[in-house]
Amino acid sequence: MLFRNRRHAGELLAEKLLHYRGQDDVLVLALPRGGVPVAFEVAKAIGAPLDLFLVRKLGLPRQPELAMGAVATGGVQVLNEGVVYRLGVPREVIDQVAERELNVLKRQQEHLRGRRPPPEIGGRTIILVDDGLATGSTMRAAVQAIRQQHPKRIVVAVPIGAAPTCDEFREEADEFVSVECPEDFYAVAMWYEDFGQVSDELVISQLEQSHAHYKDRNQAPSEAKASAASFPVQVSHDAPHDAFSHSTDHSA
User: Fold this and answer.
1) Which of 38, 172, 190, 249 has the most other CB atoms within 10 Å of its CB?
2) What pTM value is reported for the model?
């Protein structure tokens, strides 16, 4: 299966998630930026609100490529206890790195989401969406961070993923949904004709379109269904962007 672009991938993924259509407790969370055009199609198809879930790695001060944990939307912190224990990382070092990365995350979040508060996750069915899974490190941190906020159910949904990584998420999530999980995976980009980077403008636009129809997260179910029925048609395609330091897991 070769996807034309992220929009096409999202449309195909949405077909596998239609059993969530009309369920009032469902929230679709995209891992930015690449997951947003995919998640937009999913949210539109099932009539659910769309939001972002940002994750930033906590790298060791002298080995930033080695993650000792992560911070995520809502200030949630996840630690890799094995790395912390094995290397004897002091608590004050963890706190310093976490504070720095949380500040970066908050700036990113405010830029992309405005001043809206983080989405309410407790007691809800969360569909976590990205444009693909290689090693799955970012998605894994997201699942762990969301689990701390006591959702009713976590669904990991991607168009494409490496077969071993897909198998891992079948165990880690309450449900795992994909279009393809090939053995000869190599890289996410191989499975897209157009895998251009996604612009901030597209992310902001799609979030605004969704939030325009879901202004009140606590609206009555009848109102939610009415607004879902009038969800706008997507007209933008993937576009270039100026990168910031967080990106989803495509190269590993």
Assistant:
1) 38
2) 0.80
Amino acid at 164: P
Residues in the chain: 252
Measured between alpha carbons, how far is 142 from 144 in angstroms, rounded to an integer? 5
Compute the distance between CA of residue 163 and CA of residue 205 in angstroms, rounded to an integer. 33
Are 213 and 138 within one domain? yes
Tokens standing for 16?
């596998």
Based on the fold, state whether residues 61 and 106 are members of the same structural domain. yes
What number of helices (H) and strands (E) belong to the chain?
Answer: 8, 8
Co-location of 204 and 128 in the same domain: yes
219 CB-contact burial (10 Å; exposed 0-12 / middle 13-18 / buried 19+):
middle
Q: Which two tokens stand for residue 116?
A: 């809206």
Assess if residue 246 is contained within a domain. Answer: no
Quickly list DSSP for 66-113. EEEEEEETTTEEEE-HHHHHHHT--HHHHHHHHHHHHHHHHHHHHHHH
**Residue range of the domain that includes 202:** 6-53+119-227
CATH of the domain at 191: 3.40.50.2020
The CATH number that applies at residue 62 is 3.30.1310.20
Instruction: Return d(Cα 82, Cα 150) in angstroms, integer.
Output: 24
Digit-coded pLDDT (tens) for 87-109: 999 999 999 999 999 999 999 99
Which pLDDT value is given to residue 195? Answer: 96
Distances (CA, A) of 151 to 13, 18, 90, 115, 147: 22, 20, 31, 23, 6
